[in-house]
Predict the 3D structure of the following.
Amino acid sequence: MSRIETPKPIRGTQDIFGAEAEAFAHVVETFERVRKLYRFRRVEMPVFEKTEVFSRSLGETTDVVSKEMYSFLDRGDESLTLRPEFTAGIARAYLTDGWQQYAPLKVATHGPLFRYERPQKGRYRQFHQLDAEIIGAAEPQADVELLAMADQLLKELGIADGVTLQLNTLGDAESREAWRAALVEHFRESRDALSEDSQERLEKNPLRILDSKDPRDKALVHNAPRIDDFLSGEAERFFLQVTDGLDAAGVAWTRNAALVRGLDYYRHTAFEFVTDRLGAQGTVLGGGRYDGLMESLGGAPTPAVGWAAGIERLAMLVTDAGRVAIDTLDVILAVEDDRALRVAQQSLAQLRRAGFSADMIASGSPRKRFDKAVKADARVILGLTHNEDQVVRSLKGPDDWVEKVDAVVLPLILAQGQ
RNA sequence: GCGAUUGUAGCUCAGUUGGUUAGAGCGCCGGUUUGUGGUACCGGAGGUCGCGGGUUCAAACCCCGUCAAUCGCCCCA
């Protein structure tokens, strides 16, 4: 006889349960509430798209596309990909569904995303994000509004302590290109002093040298060219308007001139809310302005800005901050004699209809049911037993609660047998 | 893709230099005690020691491989 192997969960997936699941739900509920305050419209997006939706927007050559996407062929031999981010799919919908008519369009969504990566703290292959985008707004006010919403979200979640908003500008396309060239030149001069990884980066992704963790690199980063020296007048003005707006809105921020985005479609504002409490995965919420994205999907040039935040990471912070209140159980029924079961079932149903949260213990040894009920940590323990042909109740708990519960239960006790 | 650490009961973990039948606490099930109570006691079920191979008279323990978890690196849309 061959034994049946229990299938194992897929690496990097998680089964979320208990306090973690409550924290998760709390994050999503808070996001939904805040998003409505800012009048972001809810959208639901497909979990998979044609692969080109992501590969076009990310750039064909990057590691991200070649190694880190969950792609597969469907029965029509078409390459599809589980969404690794929200932005590209939303941008696609903006173009294919005629959403241009709503511009400037503020949308928000949340759900699972998939990236083929090595799992580690706060990082999974199926993970979940909150997402907010403003499409078709070129004004710095859009950046400000988006950041103000993110700031309020973190505050309402109660995790703003120890989290800082780091802000940078990448300038417009020309500024960015000039800066990049200067960086390459700077690092090439001292190439041998760079870490091995960064010598690689010099060819593939020089901006990334700026946030290297290697001390050898940090020394060279210190006096590397700064974007500020390459900003066009317009780019400088744009950034100033963003920072002024944040100050006016009371959103605290710090400048991080080394904060970059790897992809070419990012322009102007880049930002991350960073915590020191999550090990290597310090970014809690991040985003930026991606004015170049729509064109890579064949659309007209369209300014846009957005952010995303990992729900798991937020939930971890919320849990650590002790912000999730576990709903206490109102009533626990202990059926201490099986002859009381019918009345117990009636009581349970009526209590729930009356708005009490209620559970029942009616299995196992009758004499141990009350002890189990005690451990349920309910406001009111309702014991039901049988005595002289009658179901008898006992109530234990604060007087006001006992009174309210008995108002529901007593009529059922009195009505038995009628 | 790379490195470090860890895999023993449903959970948290012991398990000595390799040595008889692998243990505890919690949880679960049953019984006794108490009898309007969160008590105590007794008993029971539950283990391919992650998986596969090797060394050995003998492996949970040593060696190799593999899978997974955790943390970090790379990457981070």
Residues 7 and 328 of chain A are 35 Å apart (CA to CA). Residues 18-37 of chain A form the longest helix (20 residues). Chain A has two domains: 18-172+232-320, 331-414. Residues 18-172+232-320 of chain A form a domain with the BirA Bifunctional Protein; domain 2 fold (CATH 3.30.930.10).
